[in-house]
TrEMBL record:
Organism: Herbiconiux flava
Superkingdom in the source lineage: Bacteria
Identification of the protein by name: Glycosyltransferase
């Protein structure tokens, strides 16, 4: 199974589908403190593992506690574990303290680490872990059957040309620069997802729409309509889920000029330095070259789908061993 302590995650869903295993999401609920939610997730995970008795558990990381609970289960069951380490498991200040513990569990008797790129693989291998590299499971984006939003406010914002920025409001996102870039492009709508702090809402120009945590159906409509998708980071060695989503939908992508991103997207993406000037100029370029960029993303998608088969087979072989 593929275990994630979130309500839903695109990488988790794709990996589970590509590997032919069950995705399990344990969220814990809204409106409660983080320690209480983690405690609920801990207990629910224990009950679920005892009931299902999986022989292999792939665990999205972070948070570390989901892997720790799975490791306790493995001690009695003999199950194999893999930590699917998102970049935050290495670099997010909230979770970097747990990195040595994740790798310690991952290097035990047949366990594995899964990462998205060779730079993160080198860090895990230096700690003695055996690593599998995959960018996840890409599949062609299917336009939603209905374009009726659960949140009607999103309909007007996404009727004309607009850029979609899926945000986690995390440590590596240049929020102030993104908001200033939007201010410099008043003729373009900017839709920012995720739980924006009030300070960002107060600082935003009128052409910025905050979707909040959009429902899955609303997010699919936004993906379908977006003129450009932005995946902006200040952190090296960071692959961007939004970049994969742009690739699947053949939507022009603006992302950061980090080594791993340039290696993966090549000259198909438009690269923006994480400054207001750089981001606004890149968005305008992607809008101006929209048709050409869509063709490039479509071609790259076909290439990457062919590439991913070997990576997924390596994980499947480990599961079966």
């Amino acid at each position: 199974m593929y275990l994630s302590w979130v309500a839903y995650n695109g990488r988790s869903a794709g990996m589970a589908e590509g590997l032919g295993i069950e995705p399990v999401y344990i969220y814990g609920g809204d409106g409660i403190s983080l320690p209480v939610r983690y405690w609920r997730q801990w207990k629910q995970t224990g009950s679920m593992l005892r009931a299902k008795r999986p022989a292999t558990v792939i665990v999205m990381q972070p948070p570390f506690f989901s892997l720790l609970r799975s490791w306790i289960y493995s001690l009695g069951s003999g199950a194999k574990l893999a930590a699917d380490m998102h970049t935050g498991a290495f670099q997010d200040p909230q979770w970097s303290w747990a990195t040595p513990w994740i790798l310690r569990i991952a290097r035990r008797r047949g366990n594995r680490v899964i990462v998205t790129n060779s730079a993160l693989a080198a860090r895990a291998e230096a700690a003695g872990a055996t690593v599998l590299i995959t960018h996840g499971y890409l599949k062609k984006f299917e336009p939603p059957a209905s374009e009726r939003f659960d949140d009607p406010a999103l309909d007007g914002a996404s009727r004309g040309r607009f850029v979609l920025l899926p945000l986690g409001w995390g440590y590596d996102e240049p929020i102030e620069e993104i908001l200033e870039a939007a201010r410099r492009t008043p003729d373009v709508e900017w839709v920012l997802t995720g739980k924006a702090p009030q300070s960002a809402r107060d600082a935003a120009s009128p052409n910025v729409v905050f979707s909040g945590f959009a429902s899955r159906s609303d997010y699919q409509i936004l993906r379908h309509r977006a003129s450009v998708i932005g995946a902006i980071t200040t952190a090296e060695d960071t692959m961007q889920r939004a970049g994969y989503e742009a690739l699947e939908a053949h939507t022009p992508l603006v992302t950061s000029p980090m080594v791993v991103l340039k290696e993966y997207f090549g000259d198909v993406a438009v690269y923006a330095e994480p400054t207001a000037e750089g981001i606004s100029a890149a968005m305008l370029a992607a809008l101006a070259e929209n048709d050409e960029r869509r063709l490039g993303m479509a071609s790259l998608f076909e290439h990457k789908v062919a590439e991913q088969d070997a990576a997924m087979k390596a994980i499947t072989s480990w599961i079966a061993s």
